Amino acid sequence: MILLYLNIAVALIALLLKVTLGLFSISAVFFVLPIIFSLYGLQLIKNHKRKESYFIMGVTTLLTIMALSSLR
């Protein structure tokens, strides 16, 4: 659960940096996807569906890493 909150925070900070530095482009979609998946994963945890939430955590982490790598 903490990993999902961490992914949301990292994606929001990276999106803010990308927008403020004037680097806004189509790759900004990479920052929105981890946030959406994290919120979906939090709903799964609240509904006691642990197995699906672990999959969402992995996908969200990969999407966040992809978003951070596009900052270069």
Write up this protein.
The chain crosses the membrane at residues 12-42, 54-71. Keywords: Membrane, Transmembrane, Transmembrane helix. The chain is mainly α. The protein has one domain (2-69). The chain is built from three helices and no strands. The chain has helices at residues 2-20, 29-46, 50-69. α1 runs antiparallel to α2 (29-46), α1 (2-20) packs parallel to α3 and α2 packs antiparallel against α3 (50-69). The chain starts with a helix and ends with a helix. 25% of the residues are buried.
List its salient traits:
72 residues; mainly alpha; 3 helices; 79% helix; membrane; transmembrane helix
Write the SSE topology.
Elements: H1 2-20, H2 29-46, H3 50-69
Helix pairs in contact: 1-2, 1-3, 2-3
Transmembrane segments: 12-42, 54-71
Keywords: Membrane, Transmembrane, Transmembrane helix
